[in-house]
Design brief:
Layout (H helix, E strand, L loop, with lengths): L7 E6 L5 H6 L7 E6 L6 H11 L4 E5 L3 E3 L3 H11 L4 E8 L8 H7 L5 H11 L7 H7 L17 E5 H6 L13 H11 L3 E12 L6 H19 L2 H5 L12 H8 L4 H15 L10
Parallel strand pairs: 1-2, 5-7
Antiparallel strand pairs: 3-6, 4-7, 5-6
Length: about 290
């Protein structure tokens, strides 16, 4: 994409490592704006909402720090939105993405991260370090809208959605104040709002390897999943309380199907009908 076709909004959640100067150093090459919020704990949801509030484009692409986009990534996201019959939420492909970065040192030795296109081509050709969701994608295909809960894989390391839909559903829930869950919560509301989910493998990126602990992360996420379950209180969202335990993101849709759970929309219709049936009939005589 040409420089005039996109903007870059950098939202800094309280860092002290020279991020502001680095971001502003790209102004001769990019339409880039920098925003800062003080470090008051984990506030990634609020940081992303700052981006949504200031976005001037019709599509927002969310990219985590530590994720490097291929040169065709933004074009691929935009193509998915322009070619769709209605609003879509697009999942980009993230090479090198896993839970523990157990191969971090090997990846750093084998790949030149200053050339993300070469990294992506090498991983595509050798089939090494594929996106951790690849087995799921291979099984279900690129059109995820046929799944009962496509939002469970809407992880904001590299995804997009229409800006107006993000605003109409309320953006990210800022009550999420620890790792995990704020992105699938947003995905759930987009799904309920009629947005279709799709994968675009050409919207590819590389996850720069770094140390992390899935045990620590998922310990925090489980509380967030319980919050999500209580917030919406439908059979499907109640199942989300078991994410990270008996159910994971890759088996979540299978569990819904096997259990015969109604869609959230159908469940709410059933609840509304049951409530209406329980109300006393309104009389038509005097004083009634």
């Amino acid at each position: 994409l040409g420089r005039d076709a996109f903007e870059v909004l950098v939202v800094d959640d309280g860092s002290s490592d020279g991020t502001a100067e680095l971001a502003r150093g790209y102004r001769d090459r990019l339409d880039v704006r920098y925003f800062f919020q003080p470090d008051e704990g984990w506030r990634v949801a609020q940081a992303r909402n700052v981006g949504i509030a200031h976005a001037g484009g019709e599509v927002c692409v969310f990219v985590d720090s530590g994720v490097v986009l291929g040169s065709g990534c933004l074009r691929a996201h935009l193509d998915s939105h322009r070619q769709a019959d209605g609003p879509v939420a697009v999942l980009g492909y993230v090479y090198g993405f896993d839970n523990d970065s157990s191969d971090a040192e090997e990846m750093l030795q084998a790949l030149d991260f200053s050339d993300p296109d070469a990294c992506i081509e090498s991983m595509r050709r050798t089939r090494r370090w594929a996106d951790i969701r690849e087995p799921f994608y291979a099984r279900h295909g690129d059109d995820l809208s046929r799944l009962p809960a496509p939002w469970v894989l809407y992880w904001t390391c590299n995804v997009s959605a229409p800006t107006d839909r993000l605003r109409s559903v309320g953006g990210f829930d800022e009550n999420f104040r620890s790792w995990g869950g704020e992105d699938i919560d947003l995905g759930y509301r987009l799904h309920r709002d009629g947005v279709r989910f799709t994968l675009n493998r050409s919207a590819s990126s590389v996850h720069y390897p770094h140390a992390k602990s899935s045990v620590h992360n998922f310990a925090q996420a489980r509380a967030n999943y319980r919050y999500l379950a209580q917030k919406y209180d439908t059979p499907i969202t109640r199942l989300a309380a078991r994410l990270g335990g008996a159910v994971n993101a890759y088996t979540f849709n299978d569990a819904i199907t096997i259990s015969g759970l109604p869609s959230c929309a159908e469940y709410l219709r059933q609840q509304a009908a049951a409530t209406d049936a329980a109300l006393p009939a309104r009389g038509t005589g005097p004083g009634q």
